[in-house]
C-alpha cells in the first residue's frame, strides 16, 4: 500500500505564509490604526477608573492612557473580561469569541485612539444577536468619545 503524500520539505511552513495580507483583509479599508490586546492586570484596573457605558449584555469601559505610558498614543487597545457568573466554560468562551469578533469588526474604524477599551460580559436571560451587539457597541463608542473629549 503506497501513500502519495506531499513530503514534509515541500509543504509551506507557517513562517512563509503571508499572514499580514490575510489579517489586513479582515479589517475595514479606511482603518490604519493598530489594535492591540491588553494583557496586564494593571491596565485592566486602570481602565476601571475610566468612563463606562452599560448595556444589558455588556459593560464597555474606556480609559485614556497617560502621556508617559509605554504604548504609543496612536494605538487602540482592547480587553475582554468574562467572569464565572456568566456560566460554565462553554458559555464564557462563546461570549469571549463573540466579543473578539465584534471588537475586530468595529474598533479599527470606530475606536478612540489613545484609549483602552474593555468589554465586560453581563449575564442575560437569552443570548443577544450579533447585529444588536454591533449597534450597542457603536452607540457606546460614540457616547464614550463624547465623554472623553
Q: Give the helix proportion (percent range).
A: 25-40%
Strands of the biggest beta sheet: in what spatial order?
Answer: 1-4-5-3-2
Beginning-to-end CA distance, first to last residue:
71 Å
Please provide the ordered H/E string of secondary-structure elements: HEHEEEHEH
Which class do the helix and strand fractions yield? Answer: alpha/beta
Textual characterization of the structure:
The protein contains 4 helices and 5 strands; from the N terminus they run αβαβββαβα. The radius of gyration is 19 Å and the shape is globular. The protein has helices at 19-26, 41-47, 89-110, 130-148; strands at residues 35-37, 51-54, 58-64, 76-81, 115-121.
Break the fold down into its secondary structure elements and pairings.
Layout: H1 19-26, E1 35-37, H2 41-47, E2 51-54, E3 58-64, E4 76-81, H3 89-110, E5 115-121, H4 130-148
Parallel strand pairs: 1-4, 4-5
Antiparallel strand pairs: 2-3, 3-5
Helix pairs in contact: 3-4
In short:
This protein has about 150 residues and is of the alpha/beta class. The protein has helices at about 20-25, 40-45, 90-110, 130-149; strands spanning about 35, 50-55, 60-65, 75-80, 115-120. The protein has a 5-stranded mixed sheet with strand order 1-4-5-3-2, sandwiched between helices.
Amino acid at each position: 500500500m503506497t501513500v502519495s503524500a506531499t513530503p514534509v520539505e515541500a509543504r509551506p511552513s507557517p513562517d512563509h505564509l503571508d499572514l499580514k495580507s490575510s489579517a489586513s483583509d479582515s479589517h475595514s479599508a479606511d482603518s490604519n490604526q493598530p489594535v492591540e490586546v491588553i494583557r496586564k492586570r494593571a491596565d485592566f484596573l486602570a481602565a476601571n477608573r475610566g468612563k463606562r457605558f452599560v448595556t444589558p449584555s455588556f459593560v464597555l469601559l474606556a480609559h485614556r492612557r497617560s502621556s508617559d505610558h509605554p504604548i504609543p498614543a496612536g494605538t487602540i487597545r482592547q480587553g475582554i473580561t468574562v467572569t464565572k457568573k456568566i456560566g460554565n466554560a462553554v458559555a464564557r468562551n462563546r461570549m469571549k469569541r463573540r466579543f473578539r469578533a465584534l471588537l475586530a469588526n468595529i474598533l479599527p474604524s470606530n475606536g478612540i485612539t489613545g484609549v483602552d477599551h474593555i468589554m465586560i460580559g453581563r449575564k442575560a436571560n437569552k443570548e443577544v444577536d450579533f447585529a444588536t451587539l454591533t449597534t450597542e457597541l457603536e452607540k457606546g463608542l460614540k457616547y464614550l468619545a463624547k465623554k472623553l473629549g
